[in-house]
Amino acid sequence: MGVSKTSKATIFLGFLWLNLFQSVVGRFVVEKNSLRVVSPDVIKGTYDSAIGNFGIPQYGGSIPGTVVYPKENRKGCRNFEDSGTSFKSKSGAMPTFVLVDRGDCFFALKVWNAQNAGAAAVLVADDVDERLITMDSPEADGSSAKYIENITIPSALIEKSFAEKLKKVVNAGEMVNVNLDWREAVPHPDDRVEYELWTSSNDECGFKCDMLMKYVKDFKGAAQILEKGGYTQFTPHYITWYCPQAFTVSKQCKSQCINHGRYCAPDPEQDFSSGYEGKDVVVENLRQLCVFKVANETNKPWVWWDYVTDFQIRCPMKEKKYNKECADTVIKSLGLDSRKIEKCMGDPNADEDNPVLKEEQDAQASFFIFP
């Protein structure tokens, strides 16, 4: 994960990657539940699964069941009853959890077809090795609106590696007993949607920076309304790199990093001899993180959107106003406590970790996969 501490080539590839990554990246928090395999012993254990955003998860409870992998219609895109397949449990038997493969049709349609055939829950096997994602429902047009609204069983996406194990034992004739557990699957019990935004304060990287700034300005109004209404919980994030220990005294690292090479950003103009430096971007990114933290402490996290958009307008690089003095005027105009923000930012020249940026790098490592 991250950059090799001994490879000079890697750090410059990292800076290049960061320079290209100046568009907005957002994600919604994946809601997970626990899937526990009770038997057979060969795959016994607890596995993560991602809850679909349709149907009715049994929050606060759990459901036991037996896994079935159909011999036909394994992607679940057709009506199971057309081929005489039924998943209805006999009296006294455990509920049936149908395992279907991802692909060829909407997740919701797979679940709808399995529900109509008597399934108590649906497990969707991912077809690629990746982090779990939320199974989304299609746009509710005339053909899908009715069945989406009438899905009443829970469903979950499972990782490809785990799915392959399940298929192997089911195909071998083993009875696979599992337990779907939602007792800890409440990441937003207050009914708020949680989402994150990965961004940067750099405004001199051409089209991608322009696109980023436009997005933030256009989405600001809706974001603030949702946040003030208690419908969403927003968290901004900023990307940084770090300089290998062997190169912290190099010109490149000194101009692009703070805290002795721990937190870096590419030179805005890709010119080390003029204009702003990468470390200027890191400092402003840090300031914007602290604006969010201080605003959040006063229960007004939406003020972050005001600061970011105002800073873009009043303190652009091309007018040589991308600096602390201009930032302070924006902070003052928004009634934020500048002393708290400065304390939050710490000393960018200190040869030690910055708690705020360290937290960002940890979050970055869990979100992005680097070669």
UniProtKB/TrEMBL annotation:
Gene3D superfamilies: 3.50.30.30. It is a single-pass type I membrane protein. It is found in: Endomembrane system. This is PA domain-containing protein. Residues 65-166 form the PA domain. Transmembrane segments: none annotated. It comes from the Eukaryota. InterPro entries: PA_dom_sf, PA_domain, VSR_TRX. CDD domains: PA_VSR. GO terms for cellular component: endomembrane system. It comes from Solanum verrucosum. Residues 1-26 form the signal peptide. Its main location: membrane. Residues 193-365 form the Vacuolar sorting receptor thioredoxin-like domain. It holds the Pfam family VSR_TRX. Keywords: Calcium, EGF-like domain, Glycoprotein, Membrane, Repeat, Signal, Transmembrane, Transmembrane helix.
